[in-house]
Sequence to fold (380 residues):
Amino acid sequence: MKELIHSNPELLITVIGIGGCGCNTINMLYENNLADKVNLIAINTDLAALNSLQVKNKILIGEDLTKGYGAGSNPEVGLKAAQESEELLTNAIMGSDIVIITAGFGGGTGTGASPLVAKIARELNINCLAIVTLPFESEGKLRMDFALQGIADIKDPIHAYITLSNDLLLKGLGESVGLFSAFNQSNEVLKNLLVSLVQMLTETGYVNVDKNDFSSILSYEGESILGVGKADTEELAFDALDQALNNPLVSIAKIDTAKGIIFQLFCKAEPKLSTYNGLIDHIREKITNKSVLIVPGVTLDPNLSSEIEILIVASGIDETVQSSSQEHKDFEVQQACKENDYIDEELTFGDAEPNYLDIPTVTRNLMAMRAQKAKAKSAS
Fold:
């Protein structure tokens, strides 16, 4: 059985960083030696930024349009640059089994080009997951509007998407945290998520999650959740699970409506059967959808930095399903946000009318935080 633990050379995973934020993530993954396991590609309209990266695979898009000077924080320029270089992008991901897009939404290249890359993957029948970060509140309302529009644009072509919030991370770290420390913490969380996801897909375990399992989970399209937790002893495994379910960057308010969940357990040594069963039972207790598909995996890795690591991937989260209490809460949040101008009435989602429930849970929670701050200021 121990011979089952080996790398899977037949699975080609391509992780694409688009724009400044996405390219920084790709470079970080390269520095953590992930280039040996996956195909890392940095895509940008900014030639100088690309040249500063260590990662080997780099694609300058929109060379004729931007002359290599970037998209100027304009998502429309990012999209046109991707359209100009569509053949390059197609050739870059062709033959991949899974494509993971990482980008910062709210600017130009990442927000504008990511939906087109997702569309290309869809047309090539490649499973595609997007992990996008939302701008800090201090970056202003216009950038958040860009981010919301980017999410609306990517929802149709992508199989599943995950939104990560730097503001929620800041809330967890406290107002006194340093700027660089906050960015480093955000990068560390994102790196742990991607490293664990890649490890699950590229290493064969005793209980294995393979490409088809991952495809089945991604087939429940919509908003998704990705979380990682760690523990120093097996006795603290349930704490690791709670960490994974309470990722500081991701809202888990709707995990109870998930249609598909991957539960991956990484261990230094053989876990107890009671621990394994107990962790899965703990997940099922949180899910109101009793027909949820839970795909478990167990991998032994003597080189783990901790005794136990847990990866959770939940998909098919239904934003339209509301409990009565949550529905009332969301209505209050919506009204408060509108009163404080945090929802742009001019913002449209494709050809559809603006719909409050189209906004991801994590973003609605941010709106609530901002509305509360505004009320507190006006009261004082």
Q: What stands out?
A: The first strand starts at residue 13 and ends at 18. The radius of gyration is 20 Å.
